[in-house]
Design goal:
α2 packs parallel to α3 (59-68). β1 (2-6), α1 (10-22) and β2 form a beta-alpha-beta unit. The protein is globular. The two termini are 20 Å apart. It has a three-stranded parallel β-sheet with strand order 2-1-3, with helices on both faces. The longest helix has 13 residues, at 10-22. The relative contact order is 0.26. The protein has one domain: Response regulator (Rossmann fold), CATH 3.40.50.2300. By secondary structure, it is an alpha/beta fold. The model has no long low-confidence stretch (mean pLDDT 97). The protein has three helices and three strands. The protein has helices at 10-22, 33-42, 59-68; strands spanning 2-6, 26-30, 47-50.
């Protein structure tokens, strides 16, 4: 299972990525909404964990962009 994490707080993002990777998941980590949306639209992910308050595009905007893409 491949998971996308979009989190701008470095410690939180790194902690989530490390824990999920150690649990056997493949994890992509983006630090802002623009990069998160780009990864979501160009890579296949089974799940996304989105922070709501992100620089660039907020988490709700990332979700809306994913939904618009079909």
């Amino acid at each position: 299972m491949k998971i996308l994490i979009v989190e701008d707080e470095v410690k939180t993002g790194d902690y989530l990525k490390q824990g999920l990777t150690e649990a056997g998941f493949t994890v992509d980590l983006a630090r802002d909404g623009v990069d998160g949306l780009h990864l979501a639209l160009t890579e296949h992910h089974d799940m996304a964990i989105l922070d709501v308050m992100l620089p660039g595009i907020d988490g709700w905007g990332v979700l809306a962009g994913i939904r618009r893409s079909g």
